[in-house]
Amino acid sequence: MSKANSAVRGSKDVIQKILLDKNEIFADVLNGFIFNGKQVIKPEMLADTNTSSYYKANGEIHGQDRDVAKLLTIDKTKVVISLVGIENQTRPDKHMPARVMNYDAAAYRYQLTKSKTLYPVLTLVVYYGKEAWSYNRNLLGNINMQKLPKEMRPLISDYEIKAFYRISDLSAQELDKRFRSAFFCLAEYFIQTNAGEEYHPSAKKLSIEDILLLLDMMNALSGTHAYDELIKELGKRNKNEVTTMTEVLPEFMQVKIDRARKETTEKVTKETTEKVTKDYLINILSTTNLTPDGAMDLLGIPKDDRPMYKDLLKKTGDYHD
Description:
Elements: H1 3-21, H2 23-34, E1 46-48, E2 52-57, E3 60-65, E4 68-74, E5 80-89, H3 96-114, E6 121-127, E7 163-166, H4 172-178, H5 183-194, E8 205-207, H6 208-222, H7 228-234, E9 242-244, H8 249-263, H9 270-287, H10 292-299, H11 306-316
Parallel strand pairs: 5-6, 6-7
Antiparallel strand pairs: 1-4, 2-3, 4-5, 8-9
Helix pairs in contact: 1-6, 4-5, 5-6, 6-7, 8-9, 9-10
């Protein structure tokens, strides 16, 4: 791999880690997937830990770095500690069971150098991809055992990814039940786009900081720069300000119009502008309690243009006198 490609890959990996590295979001992922939304894991129960490990092969030292890992302490009187890691996947990987086994083994090996008592290690694999995961989720399922004598096959140890979660398997109702943090919006984004739909976010309250991290991760995991302009604009605002993805739609709409201008040598036509504006009006009306006029106020639509947009909404059944 070239240095340039390594730098791009490294940057992408870092971006993927930043959002989930926040304790409240890491806890939300555990609660959402493992406990079906029940608030069992609290952010204060989590602590940062090293995600890197090293091994020697062919006389050289090699490093491996898992995406995000935390030490989880349950019941301070008993001091039960677990190492929990989350791996982000956008494409099926035949060798994922072996990778998870390596991460877990490295964690146990490190413990053996520090203490006589081992604590459990758990790795969650979160799969964001559109296509089905076509590979086995256990080690031996991806290894050809046919030429091995039958007597030896039962003696080969297996390793299984037990905590495997595919985002596209969740429904909108399940999302709302399971997740409370910005991860809700990340999952919502992939569910909609994997289904071939345009992304229409829900009106969930988030800080500007979390929205920026969310947009960065959506860019990284989708392999696009679709939200670069919006990220730049939101970066000018107070990171502690609380808003929603729906409320930043005027900027989002303008980003899409600006991008259309760049991708074509002609100006955006009136028809294109009207279609984009109508789509965002419909999204705002379906995710907020605003009236059509209130939604148009939010988008800054001139009063002279409003009758035309109301007629467009009537044709789609989204507005009645």
